[in-house]
Design a protein that fits this description.
By secondary structure, the chain is α/β, with parallel strands linked by helices. The strands form five sheets. Strands 1, 2, 3, 4, 5, 17, 18 and 19 form an eight-stranded mixed sheet that branches. About 35% of the residues lie in helices and about 20% in strands. It has two domains: about 90 residues, Urease, subunit C, domain 1, CATH 2.30.40; about 260 residues, Metal-dependent hydrolases (TIM Barrel, Alpha-Beta Barrel), CATH 3.20.20.140. The chain contains twelve helices and 19 strands. Keywords: Signal. Pfam families: Amidohydro_1 (PF01979). One of its GO terms (molecular function) is hydrolase activity, acting on carbon-nitrogen (but not peptide) bonds. This is Amidohydrolase family protein. It comes from Fibrella rubiginis.
Length: about 425
């Protein structure tokens, strides 16, 4: 009995030792390390981490357990989606209101398990998922299911329900005599906001999302919701737990308050001005312009690519230009869910179309997003970091759409595609 137990333990130790030395050498044509391109570099992976990276000649294939040759291909850090809604699906399939009010939560989660797989297979190994839009804390369970290996998917940073000022969000337009369930959590004032932030954190929020403005003016335009003091309270409570705050902000005043309150990223920023972007630069606030969402919605409303752009898109191009001119840090996040999951590359292509260089866009989707989201263990190809990587055919620094030509996805050292 004792000896068989001993031999079992020995076997376990041996297999652990064998696992501990499992190395994989990847030999692409070039490596984008999160900041710059390096021709003829290779990457060695040991278990779930990057073990070594450098000129191919410096990494001997003989010393590794397995070698994957990837001629003509580019290896990059696993891409980071900065703004997703895994619990939503495209609005041209089902309008947002109907997803929130008519779809069973079980249905939404079932869809989300497919979305996570499509996202990962597209080379996005991390997502910052910014609100369940009426599906309460289902992002927390989704994240746990991925982390436990129940379903394939990216690493998730979750916002849970998100915070809205009473009466400001949606679905709206119903009889004032009925209370319609909302797509986020209503909370106002010092005490109730403190409670709501703490409750969301307690239930699993990695980041707090707040709607600093929303379409609730008389003419349906975006107007500020929370006061500056309320936003400061949210930031203070989140920050004391080590978490950042993300603000949905499209109006000048909503953006101004969110910046001054200490929000780390502003989402959308549609009505930004040179003055507002200068303020963002001054406070180190990053912008996640979500250009693909606006582009998708314009198409759902009948606009066809290749025909003159609607005013809204023309204005968006202008504000993105102003943000770039002001030197604002730009995150990559498309608001995917408005358009199909797995098509995350659409944002990267449009960022180039809106005036960024492919290299700058790839930095945004890797090292910049990692820095802004406080993910020190990923976003770069560097020894010691998580072995999250994507390999594509071609060179996306020359042609951004090559980012779609995914041949290999590695998450935590395991080949997942
Ligand atoms: Zn969003």
């Amino acid at each position: 009995m004792r000896s068989s137990l001993y031999s079992l333990l020995l076997t376990l130790c041996l297999s652990t030792a064998a696992f501990a030395q499992k190395t994989l050498l990847l030999r692409p044509a070039r490596v984008f390390d999160g900041e710059a391109m390096h021709e003829s570099w290779s990457v060695r992976v040991k278990n779930d981490r990057i073990d070594a990276v450098g000129p191919a000649a410096s990494l001997a294939p003989a010393a590794t357990d397995s070698v994957i040759n990837l001629p003509g291909a580019t290896l990059l850090p696993g891409l980071i989606e900065g703004h997703s809604h895994l619990l939503l699906h495209p609005y041209n399939e089902t309008p947002w209101d109907d997803q929130v009010l008519r779809e069973a939560r079980s249905m939404r989660v079932a869809r989300a398990t497919v979305h996570t797989q499509k996202t990962l297979r597209a080379g996005f190994t991390t997502v910052r998922d910014l609100g369940t839009e009426g599906a309460d804390y289902d992002d927390v369970g989704l994240k746990q299911a991925i982390d436990k290996g129940v379903i394939p998917g990216p690493r998730m940073i979750v916002a849970t329900r998100a915070l809205i000022a009473t009466g400001s969000y949606a679905p709206k337009g119903f009889s004032p005599d009925i209370d319609v369930p909302q797509g986020a959590e209503e909370a106002d004032g010092h005490d109730r906001l403190i409670q709501a932030v703490r409750r969301q954190i307690g239930k699993g929020a990695d980041v707090i999302k707040v709607y600093a403005d929303y379409r609730w003016g008389l003419m349906g335009e975006a107007k500020p919701t929370f006061t500056l003091d309320e936003l400061k309270t949210i930031v203070e409570v989140a920050k004391s737990s080590g978490r950042g705050v993300v603000a949905h902000a499209g109006s000048v005043e909503g953006m101004r308050r969110a910046i001054l309150a200490g929000c780390e990223t502003l989402e959308h920023g549609d009505a930004g001005t040179p003055e507002i972007f200068a303020l963002m630069k001054q406070h180190g606030t990053a912008l996640c312009p979500t250009v693909a969402a606006g582009d998708a919605i314009a198409q759902y409303r009948g606009w066809k690519r290749g025909t003159p752009e609607p005013t809204r898109l023309k204005e968006k191009r202008e504000t993105v230009k102003q943000a770039l001119a002001a030197g604002v840090t730009i995150c990559a996040g498309g608001d995917v869910g408005v358009f199909p999951h797995g098509d995350n590359a659409r944002e990267l292509e449009l960022m180039v179309d809106y005036g960024m260089t492919p290299v700058a866009v790839l930095r945004s989707a890797t090292s910049v997003n990692a820095d802004v989201f406080h993910l020190a263990d990923r976003g770069r190809i560097r020894a010691g970091l998580l072995a999250d990587m994507v390999v594509v055919t071609g060179d996306p620094t020359r042609q951004i759409s090559d980012i779609r030509r995914v041949v290999l996805v590695i998450k935590g050292g395991a080949v997942v595609k």
